[in-house]
Amino acid sequence: MQQRVVVIGLGIFGFNIVRELYDGGFEVIAIDKDKEAVQMARDCSTKAIVADGTNRDVMEEIGIQEDDVVIVSFGEDLAAATLTTLHLKQMKVRTIIVKAPNEEHKLILEKIGATEVMIPEREIAHKVARSLISPNVLEYLPLSDDYVISEVAPPNEFLGKNLAELQLRSRYHIEVIAIKDVLSDNLTMIPKADFVIKDGDILVVVGREEEIRKIK
């Protein structure tokens, strides 16, 4: 059974979360006290409800359950985010994801029971900075403080060579775990040493972030 997601707060961030999850096949309940915001969400959610997310009685009437994933997105309104998070914790909701504008708000929300606190502006700034520092590194997925999985566009000198010739493990201390062909959308998992890199391939690698940056 697909897990249900409840999104409280339909600003730009909340609305886009609703739409993306609904398009991804999730059951999504969208909640906001602004009628226009709820009206906009009706076509891209399972159910859109006009309600005050800070009111515990209302949230209980809506039927938020312990197993629901609840995403709280109130922008700069720390009081609303804090009160809603506190109520959800008291309702024994196990997964509470909250949007915060800064580190100070993040610490407060974590203290009162948020499972995860996101700072979207910081994440976007981090992503833009990384794209300038390493323009051929397309995406990062952190595994630990040191290691990441990354999608890397191979530099021109890689093209026409096989993995054995490139010696990525010995030269850069990284491992190629998959190769995606963006033209055919084919994915080769754990490619062999004789796999020849061509234009249009994307390398999926695992290694230390500073080593991956060296592939330019």
Description:
With 216 residues, the chain is an alpha/beta fold. The protein has helices at 12-23, 35-41, 56-62, 78-90, 103-111, 120-133, 163-166, 168-172, 209-212, and strands at residues 4-8, 27-32, 47-50, 69-72, 95-99, 116-118, 137-142, 147-152, 175-181, 186-189, 201-208. It folds into two domains: 4-121, NAD(P)-binding Rossmann-like Domain (Rossmann fold); 130-212, Alpha-Beta Plaits, CATH 3.30.70. The chain contains nine helices and eleven strands. Strands 3-2-1-4-5-6 form a six-stranded parallel beta sheet, sandwiched between helices. Strands 7-8-11-9-10 form a five-stranded antiparallel beta sheet. The model has no long low-confidence stretch (mean pLDDT 86).
Backbone shape: elongated
- CATH topology of the largest domain, by name, is Rossmann fold
The CATH homologous superfamily of the largest domain is named NAD(P)-binding Rossmann-like Domain
- In total, the number of strands is 11
- Radius of gyration equals 22 Å
Structural class comes to: alpha/beta
CATH class group of the largest domain: Alpha Beta
The portion of residues forming beta strands comes to 25-35%
Distance between the termini: 44 Å
Main sheet: which strands, in order across? 3-2-1-4-5-6
At CATH level 2, the architecture of the largest domain is 3-Layer(aba) Sandwich
The topology string of helices and strands comes to: EHEHEHEHEHEHEEHHEEEH
Relative helix content = 25-40%
Largest sheet features: 6 strands, parallel
